[in-house]
């Protein structure tokens, strides 16, 4: 992703989230989690995108960008990281406590706004139909 595209999508996020995403604190926390669960030790991954560390980073970023609802986080981790349920639960809890909790209010507002946008009824423009009957309330002009 080029730097201009990063700036574009970052500018669409709430300030608290975009500042946190670009902070050293965020990258340090994520790195600690990846090391703790040995996500960096993956000899079978041929490309970085195939590694569990990359997948975890991508999933967390998608939640913070508003593209993945936090309520689906653990389920997506389970599908992508292929760990046992106990380990997935621990990773999800740690990410929630150390990352999502830092921006929880902004995340909540962002997802509430997205849900509200989905629920808004679409206003359909209807063209007025021409009157077929004679207007009986109007006086005739002679």
Fold blueprint:
Elements lengths: L2 H9 L3 H7 L2 H13 L15 H14 L7 H9 L3 H14 L5 H16 L23
Which properties best describe this structure?
7 helices, mainly alpha, 142 residues
Give an overview of the whole structure.
With 142 residues, the protein is mainly alpha-helical. The chain has one domain. It is 58% helix and 0% strand. It starts with a helix and ends in a 23-residue tail after the last helix.
Gist?
Helices cover 58% and strands 0% of the residues. The protein has helices at residues 3-11, 15-21, 24-36, 52-65, 73-81, 85-98, 104-119.
Number of domains: 1
Helix vs. strand class: mainly alpha
Residue share in helix: 55-70%
Query: Please, how many helices?
Result: 7
Broad shape: elongated
Overall average residue pLDDT: 81
| Percentage of residues in DSSP E strands | under 5%
N-to-C CA distance: 75 Å
What's the number of extended β-strand segments?
A: 0
Sheet of most strands: none
Uncertain residue ranges: none
**How do the helices and strands follow one another from N- to C-terminus?**
HHHHHHH
């Amino acid at each position: 992703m080029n730097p201009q595209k990063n700036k574009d999508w970052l500018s669409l996020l709430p300030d608290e989230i975009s500042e946190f995403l670009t902070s050293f604190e965020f990258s340090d926390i994520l790195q600690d989690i990846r090391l703790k669960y040995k996500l960096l030790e993956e000899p079978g991954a041929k490309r970085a995108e195939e590694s569990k560390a990359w997948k975890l980073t991508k999933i967390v970023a998608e939640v913070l960008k508003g593209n993945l609802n936090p309520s689906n986080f653990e389920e997506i981790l389970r599908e992508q990281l292929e760990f046992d349920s106990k380990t997935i639960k621990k990773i999800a809890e740690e990410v929630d406590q150390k990352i999502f909790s830092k921006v929880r209010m902004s995340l909540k507002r962002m997802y509430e706004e997205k849900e509200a946008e989905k629920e808004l009824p679409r206003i359909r423009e209807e063209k007025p139909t021409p009157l077929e009957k004679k207007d009986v309330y109007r006086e005739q002009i002679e």
